[in-house]
Amino acid sequence: MSDFIFTSESVTEGHPDKIADQLSDAVLDAILTEDPFGRVACESFVTTGMALVGGEISTTTYVDIPSLVRDVISDIGYTHSDYGFDAHTCAVLTTIDQQAADIAMGVDRAGAGDQGMMFGFACKETPELMPMPIVLAHKLTRRLAEVRRDGTMSWLRPDGKAQVSVRYENGKPVEINNVVVSSQHTPDKTQDEIREAILKNVVYHVLPKDLYDKKSLVTHINPTGRFVMGGPHADAGLTGRKVIVDTYGGYAPHGGGAFSGKDATKVDRSGAYMMRYAAKNVVAAGLADKVTLQVAYAIGVAEPVSFLVDTHGTGKVEDERIAELLQKHLNFTPAGIIEHLNLRRPVYRNTAAYGHFGREEEGFTWEETSRIAPLLEKEA
Description:
Elements: E1 4-11, H1 16-34, E2 39-47, E3 50-58, H2 65-76, E4 91-97, H3 101-108, E5 116-123, H4 132-149, E6 156-169, E7 172-185, H5 191-206, E8 218-221, E9 237-238, H6 243-246, H7 267-284, E10 290-297, E11 306-310, H8 319-329, H9 334-341, H10 373-379
Parallel strand pairs: 3-4, 7-8
Antiparallel strand pairs: 1-6, 2-3, 2-9, 5-10, 6-7, 10-11
């Protein structure tokens, strides 16, 4: 279809699943700070009055996980018992083992830490070279956090979601036609007050004015009518349950592997980061308007078992030529990915809310285009 409507969603840092992602990545960062070669597979679970951190970790350092967990929850904004989840009083449970020796043996030989397939995607729809619906959804949820923190809408609470529907003509985005924003709030606010404030300070503040008409834009603001009970008190959260929010908003395929809490020997994370890096450089080099990449690995084996390039008919050169150039200039083994993207640094908690891709922030090396794009453009 060349004419269609596509929808993507994002969630705030106070969403239960995102709390869990941030806890897992905070543990990973704490270990990498002292032990860059630590092996981490950390899962977190949050529910009313409790956070559980477990997994397999092999490291030479020590992390005070309970204190770290409380700091992260406090920083997100759950600091009062009225929320049903309080950083100061919640129970923190830990259950940690070492990485299984059978897995370690394969990783020690520079092989992949697991089997699986990973996808990368980039397109010219936005300056971020990302699909427009997920970019706008992330901007809305970030804005919810901003107005909560800076006092503009201090009556908001940390949990929230946003959803954006974009109409496409001839495969290009032309109009935003539907927006959904739901945010947890204090019990004293009326639905009318909430709707008016979110439209003014969030929706109309974020959305590009040339892509919507206030008269025709359909907006659903807290559509149930009330969102006082939220966070882990209302819904349990688990690491790795927001993989579509984390990537391309459903606009591109997903291999199924989550990111948070995993060190870079796990190709679920590093492979997906490298595929985004490669895809973005292809589009930045002008070789295609849109590209999907796939790579697949066998556990314990360094070289990928497959590599696919699909420019969806937008390529300026043959897909096979792009694949040849990428494999010439990039090393897709786990060790090669880790070295090229410098992935043994503590940069991961910042990825655990508002998406891993499309953000040119410090440490997000998989978003850089200065090294590879010029080579691709020159040799294509």
